[in-house]
Amino acid sequence: MKSKYTLLLIPPNNALARQIQISLKGKRILISGLATLGVLIIFLFSYNIYLSHTLWIQEADFKAAEQMKLANQEKDQEIERLQSESLKATQELASIHELELKLASILKVDPSATQTSRGSTPPSVLATRSDEAVSLTNQLTLLKQYYNLAIEKKDQINHTPSILPVEGEIASSFGYRQNPFGKRTDEFHNGVDIAVNYGTPVHATAAGTVTFAGWDSVYGRKVEIDHGNGIVTFYGHNSRLNVNAGDTVQKGDIIAYSGNSGRSTGAHLHYGALDQGKSIDPLTFTNFTKEQ
Asked: Is residue 211 situated within a structural domain?
């Protein structure tokens, strides 16, 4: 076995060659060194691949985290927007309710009759939608217009018979009907009969001056009120009167108590109206119909 090895190094350009002798031990060291260097290179290459893969995963995770952060920011902004809309909606609901009460006071009607809001409970923050907020805003704007008009026309509204004198079913409408006494002929009914219990309070349907309060051969105990502008209302078949001729009354005042006096077949209120001396349907001024 050889104890030494010779390495011949031949440089380019015809330079002098060099010989290096390596012992067996040196050979082993050289081979071990080369092997170690190879293993190191493989390790470094593998580690570089591992680092690259790790960085790729971390970069993907970072991008996902950034996207999640942006999504959370957008959700936070949406929640903040919804909270703002909810607060605005709550404020508008309060304004609507306040205007409804003021309108009801001017119109002398039950506040529930003018109620357009959705109740006193604020809408859920997450349930509030933009279209609902816009709807409330439009509703509030429209109600403000009604309110301003009501303020401007308050006196005219107060003198317009826009409410019913009593609450009850319309037993007989305005116009021609079968004669309740003869049953074989038709007669013109110049008002509406409202079925109520005996002694029910009768309210003035508008502000005005009482022009008649006394006995009438047809309507029994009757009250007649002049509201101005040629509008007159009258209330017949009462059991007791609460006003006298010449009295000034306001919309909603109790002027009499229902009964069965005069030409009547049972306890009810006959409510009639005149416009420039001509009989008209008294429900013309209200939003009440027989079907209601």
From this structure: yes
Structural domain boundaries enclosing 274: 169-285
Look at the chain and report how many structural domains it folds into: 3
Residue 18 lies in a domain: yes
Residue 72 lies inside a defined structural domain of this protein = no
Contact 123, 86 (CB under 8 A): yes
* Rounded to 5°, angle at Cα 158 from 152 and 162: 115
| Within a domain: 280 | yes
One domain, residues 142 and 34: no
CB 85 within 8 A of CB 128: yes
Which of 263, 262, 251, 271 is CA-nearest to residue 196? 271
Q: What is the pLDDT of residues 38-76, one digit of tens each?
A: 888 888 888 888 888 888 888 777 788 888 888 888 888
- Do the beta carbons of residue 239 and residue 223 sit within 8 Å? no
The 3-class secondary structure across 35-99, one letter per residue, is: HHHHHHHHHHHHHHHHHHHHHHHHHHHHHHHHHHHHHHHHHHHHHHHHHHHHHHHHHHHHHHHHH
Indicate if 85 and 115 belong to the same structural domain: yes
Please name which of 275, 194, 261 lies closest in space to residue 233, comparing C-alpha atoms: 275
Residue 27 has pLDDT above 80, yes or no: no
Q: Which helix (H) or strand (E) holds 205?
A: none
Q: pTM (2 decimals)?
A: 0.53
Same domain, 102 and 29: no
Backbone φ, ψ for residue 228 (5° rounding): 85, 165
Reference 139, options 155, 113, 117, 119; nearest CA is 117
Q: Is 229 helix (H, G, I), strand (E, B) or coil?
A: coil
Map tokens 């047809």 to a residue.
Answer: 218
Least confident stretch, 125-129, 255-259, 282-286: 125-129
Cβ within 8 Å of residue 9, ≥6 positions away: 17, 18, 19, 20
Task: List phi, psi (to 5°) of 170.
Answer: -75, 105
